[in-house]
Structure formats: C-alpha cells, structure tokens
C-alpha cells in the first residue's frame, strides 16, 4: 500500500510563490511516474506537472516557465515549486503516483488560493 501526503498549500497574493510537497510512504517501486494535478471548483482534475523515473518532466502549457517539479530520495518526496502565481492557479492540488500497469494512488490534496 502507498500513502501520499501533500502539504504546502495556502493563501498567496498574485505574483507570489509557494512550494508544495508530496511525501510518499509504503511499498514504492522505482519505475513510476509522480505527478501533480489540480482541480478548481466546478472543473475537472487536470495534470499540472509530472516526472518519470528517468527524470523526464512534463508540464501543462498554462504553468510552463512558472512551475517546476522535482524529486528527491528516489521519489519519496516530490515538490512543486510555483512562482508568479495567478488567480487562475487557485485549486486543490493533488499528488499522484502511477505505475506503468495503470495502478495509481492519490493524496488527499492541499488547497492553494491566489488572491489579493
């Protein structure tokens, strides 16, 4: 079983920064993809950024150049550095661990509000 716990959300002014963390525990295999998703009220959950076991990263067009995903300790912790935040970045951010066979685990989410 895998547990994912997100942290680092909060209220920030437009133009500000936040760093989200996702701590993974349990039986984690090295061949996996870790990702950050977000869901705004009334909208679907969308991919924000992901990182594979061979360090390949992928970003949503809306966050390219502003957000950076990184990992340490063989993916036991995944970070999402968010800079130049905009009101449209307001959402609940979720961490996801996914294996090539499609098995996936989700965290409970951390809320980010960008507002003046």
What attributes characterize this protein structure?
mainly beta, 116 residues, 4-stranded antiparallel beta sheet
Radius of gyration: 13 Å
Q: How do the helices and strands follow one another from N- to C-terminus?
A: EEEEEEEEEEE
Cα end-to-end separation: 40 Å
- The number of E-state strands comes to 11
Give a quick account of the main beta sheet: strands, pairing sense, barrel closure.
7 strands, mixed
Individual helix count = 0
Spans of at least 5 consecutive residues with low confidence? none
User: Could you estimate the helical fraction of the residues in percent?
Assistant: under 10%
Average pLDDT value? 93
Class from secondary-structure proportions: mainly beta
Beta-strand share of residues: over 45%
Large-scale geometry: globular
